[in-house]
Each structure stands twice: as structure tokens, then as C-alpha cells.
């Protein structure tokens, strides 16, 4: 259908995420050396807290604003429409923000114990409360960029943010250790806000004549408010439950195993984010507004198949190289203290494969009017997360935390694909089945052959790269030609 357009759009964001990942490697290595597993665990929890709280406060309403912009961006009265959309959004989100901050402040002591394991970290909890309003405000300029599908510009902004934050992070962590790492989190979000606001104001708000005055003078459109409440209803129920679920899961790990074990598992999460962080935001930035524009099930099916194929192609290198070289990869970017986590990596990556497949289907639900069904499935997903974590962490330690990242994506990939088949007339293509089976079977073989060696030579260190080369032969002819063309261009440039 539109695979090339999808590839082009997401490639900009993946370049950005690669820059973020590379910069993150620098700060991660410094943090691992200076902070240890406990310090990494604290930073991991603090980042989780700020992001989840901001997601809850916006209550999915920002997606409604993106939808309103995407559907009306070519209308003659676009200024009035966008101003009205932002007016409704600002009023509602401000109200929810006040409620959230009040609630968090009142129960700060109890929540600090659940998040960090010790009441002595309450100052970090208040830093999180201070931080997440900046994330919420950033959603306003980001919404207009995403609504206009200006992916290339979003990519450039984020690359600038990455390197600006890197310059700030390194000295803070090096000289001030944990306090510097904690201070860096709100500072990074402030930098994010300033750059997004500056670019959006220069290229869109000024061009369209949108400012604070036009927003607050805009009409209070009931249809927009109704849609925002519709999305916020989804956000209140699902968002609250998602945060509750993650709090419960993490508090189980902290109470049963200690916050240092979350820190120990951090390399696995970080390497998983090499895909979830690269690919999924890129897919979301392209897919969500695009699904809003599609008119029939045939178009939806085509885009779903393209997303499924792209996700599989991108994750193949991570699987076929990451599984055989797991200890080596972790030791480079962390310290020897973290290499103990390498045994979890292959299975976690297998869960990521299903997570990427599942994610594409989730992006089609809300834009096509299936927000209630998506919300119901999400609640079941988070419930399964809690059940898996409670049972397996209690009985099998950190393996239970690993299984939480495997079982839910596996189960709900099948639930979503069956639902799409019934309600969207979705049909997976033969080419996708072949590629997905090759990826899955190859990954399972690599896992089965772990630690099998011949004269001190591990078979997987050769088999992984060999399977990566073989993946070329399960591509479509046009995809093979695309790769050949790219390689030939690089050869010409090097001569």
C-alpha cells in the first residue's frame, strides 16, 4: 500500500531515536560507573514516575487534539478550529493537572515508599511532581507538529534536544553523582519544552496567526469538548489503571527483591528501548494521523500490513545480534556488575517481538472509532501484567519481572489480530507470514542454542550474523532492490 511512505516517515524518527540512544549510552555508562545498580534503579523509577503522571494528566486528550488538527488542517477556518481545540484542551488539562498535583502531594509519603522503597527519597518524589507539568505543556506544540505530520521537523528538533541535553547531563552526573542525575531529569524536560515551543511558534503558530489571545478568544466548541471528554474518559479509566498496574508491578519487585534489582534489569529495558524507543514513537507519529485520514477497511488493512512488516524488519538485527552477543553488549555500555542480567535478555527480546507486532494494531483502534474496545483490551492487558508479576516475582524472583514483558504482549498480539480480522476485515499477507515465521523461528533457535559451544567457540556468535544475512532472502524483490540500491550509493560515495 504505502510502505515506502511509511518507511520514509518513520526513518526520520528512527534516526532521531538512534541519536537519543547513542547519547543515552554515554549518560548510562557514566551513571553505571558512578551510581551502581541502586542509583540506576532510583533514576529508572523517577523517570517512570514523571512520564506516567504526565500521561495520566493529559488523559489521552492530546491524541484527540492531534485528531482534530489532522482532520481539519486543510479547512479555510483552520485558525479558528485549532485555536478552539487548544482552548478546550488547555482548560480541561489544567483542571486535571491541579487535581493530580494535589493528590500526589497529599499522599507523597506513602507513594514514595511504594516507588522508591524508602521514605528518605521523598525529595525525589517532589522533583517528579515539579517536572511533569513541563511534559504536559510540551504536548501543545508537539500536537500541532504531529497533527500536520511534520515528521522531518520533529526529528530535527529532537536531535537538537538530544545533544543539548547530553552537554548538560555529563557534567551534572560526573560532578554531582546521584543528585546531578536527578536534577538532569527536570532540566531535560525544560529544554524539550523550549525547543518545541520555539519551532512550533515560528513555523505554525505565527504562520496561522495562533497565539494565546486567539486561543482564549476562540469559541468553546461543544463537539471538540465532547470528543476531548470522550478521549479523557478513556484516559481516566485506562490511564489510571495503567499507572496503578505499573505501580503495583514495580512495588512488588521493590518490596520482594529491592530497588537494586530494578537497577540490575535496567540494561535489558534500555536495550529493548533500542527498538521500542526507535521504532514505536516513529510509527505512532506517522500512523495515528494517517489512520485518522483513512476511509475504509481495505486502506486500514494495507497500512496495518505495512506497519507489521516494517516493525519486523527493524527488530531482526536486534534479535539476531543481541541474543548471541548479550554479555558483550551489556559489558560495553554498563559495568561487570550488570552482566548478571544478560541471561534475561534473549527472552525479553522475544517478548519485544510480539510487543512490536501488537503495537501496530493498537494504533488503528482509536483513530477508527474503536476507543472503547481498545480501552477494554488495555485494562485486560494491565491486569495480566499484575497477575504475572505477583505470581512469578514472588516465586521466581527477577525471572517474574522478565515474564511480565513476555506473556502480556504474546497474548494480546493474538487478541488484537483476531479482533482486527473480525471487525476490520484484516487479512495478513503471505509475505508477512513468511517474514514473521522466519524471525520467530530463528530467534527461538538462537535461544535454544545459547551456551552451546564447540572447542570454546559459541555457535550462536556465528549463527546470529548468518541468520541476519539469510533474512535478505525472505524479503520482497523490491525490498532487495532497495537495499542493493542503498549499498551501491554508499560504495559510490566512498570511492
UniProtKB/TrEMBL annotation:
TM stretches of this protein: 20-43, 89-109, 121-145, 157-176, 182-204, 224-244, 264-287, 307-325, 345-362, 374-393, 399-422, 434-453, 459-475
GO cellular component, as recorded: plasma membrane
Organism of this sequence: Polaribacter gangjinensis
Protein name: Polysaccharide biosynthesis protein
Tree of life domain: Bacteria
Coiled coil (residue ranges): none
Membrane topology: Multi-pass membrane protein
Compartment annotation: Cell membrane
Amino acid at each position: 500500500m504505502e510502505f515506502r511512505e511509511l518507511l520514509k516517515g518513520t526513518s526520520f524518527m528512527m534516526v532521531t531515536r538512534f541519536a537519543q540512544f547513542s547519547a543515552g549510552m554515554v549518560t548510562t555508562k557514566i551513571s553505571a560507573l558512578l551510581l551502581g545498580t541502586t542509583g540506576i534503579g532510583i533514576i529508572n523509577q523517577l523517570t517512570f514516575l514523571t512520564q506516567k503522571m504526565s500521561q495520566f494528566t493529559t488523559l489521552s486528550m492530546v491524541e484527540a487534539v492531534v485528531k482534530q488538527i489532522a482532520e481539519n488542517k486543510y479547512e479555510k477556518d483552520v485558525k479558528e478550529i485549532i485555536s478552539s481545540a487548544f482552548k478546550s484542551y488547555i482548560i480541561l488539562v489544567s483542571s486535571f493537572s491541579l487535581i493530580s498535583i494535589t493528590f500526589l502531594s497529599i499522599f507523597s509519603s506513602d507513594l514514595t515508599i511504594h516507588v522508591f522503597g524508602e521514605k528518605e527519597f521523598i525529595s525525589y518524589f517532589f522533583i517528579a511532581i515539579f517536572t511533569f507539568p513541563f511534559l504536559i505543556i510540551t504536548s501543545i506544540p508537539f500536537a500541532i507538529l504531529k497533527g500536520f505530520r511534520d515528521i522531518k521537523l520533529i526529528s530535527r528538533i529532537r536531535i537538537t534536544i538530544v545533544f543539548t541535553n547530553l552537554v548538560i547531563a555529563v557534567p551534572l552526573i560526573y560532578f554531582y553523582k546521584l543528585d546531578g542525575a536527578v536534577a538532569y531529569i527536570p532540566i531535560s524536560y525544560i529544554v524539550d519544552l523550549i525547543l518545541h515551543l520555539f519551532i512550533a511558534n515560528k513555523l505554525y503558530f505565527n504562520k496561522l496567526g495562533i497565539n494565546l489571545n486567539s486561543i482564549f478568544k476562540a469559541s468553546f466548541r461543544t463537539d471538540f469538548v465532547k470528543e476531548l471528554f470522550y478521549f479523557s474518559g478513556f484516559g481516566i479509566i485506562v490511564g489510571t489503571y495503567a499507572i496503578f498496574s505499573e505501580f503495583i508491578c514495580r512495588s512488588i519487585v521493590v518490596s520482594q527483591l529491592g530497588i537494586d534489582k530494578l537497577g540490575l534489569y535496567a540494561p535489558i529495558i534500555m536495550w529493548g528501548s533500542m527498538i521500542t524507543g526507535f521504532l514505536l514513537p516513529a510509527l505512532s507519529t506517522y500512523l495515528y494521523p494517517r489512520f485518522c485520514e483513512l476511509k475504509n477497511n481495505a486502506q486500514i488493512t494495507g497500512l496495518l500490513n505495512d506497519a507489521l512488516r516494517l516493525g519486523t524488519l527493524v527488530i531482526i538485527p536486534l534479535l539476531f545480534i543481541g541474543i548471541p552477543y548479550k554479555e558483550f553488549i551489556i559489558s560495553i555500555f554498563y559495568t561487570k556488575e550488570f552482566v548478571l542480567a544478560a541471561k534475561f535478555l534473549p527472552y525479553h527480546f522475544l517478548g519485544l517481538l510480539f510487543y512490536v507486532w501488537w503495537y501496530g494494531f493498537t494504533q488503528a483502534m482509536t483513530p477508527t472509532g474503536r476507543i472503547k474496545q481498545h480501552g477494554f483490551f488495555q485494562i485486560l492487558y494491565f491486569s495480566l501484567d499484575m497477575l504475572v508479576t505477583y505470581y512469578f516475582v514472588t516465586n521466581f524472583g527477577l525471572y517474574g519481572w522478565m515474564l511480565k514483558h513476555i506473556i502480556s504482549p504474546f497474548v494480546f498480539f493474538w487478541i488484537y489480530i483476531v479482533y482486527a480480522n473480525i471487525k476490520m476485515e484484516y487479512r495478513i499477507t503471505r509475505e508477512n507470514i513468511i517474514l514473521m515465521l522466519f524471525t520467530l523461528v530463528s530467534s527461538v533457535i538462537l535461544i535454544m542454542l545459547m551456551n552451546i559451544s564447540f572447542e570454546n567457540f559459541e555457535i550462536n556468535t556465528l549463527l546470529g550474523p548468518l541468520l541476519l544475512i539469510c533474512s535478505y532472502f525472505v524479503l520482497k524483490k523490491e525490498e532487495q532492490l532497495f537495499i542493493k540500491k542503498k549499498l551501491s550509493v554508499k560504495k559510490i560515495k566512498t570511492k
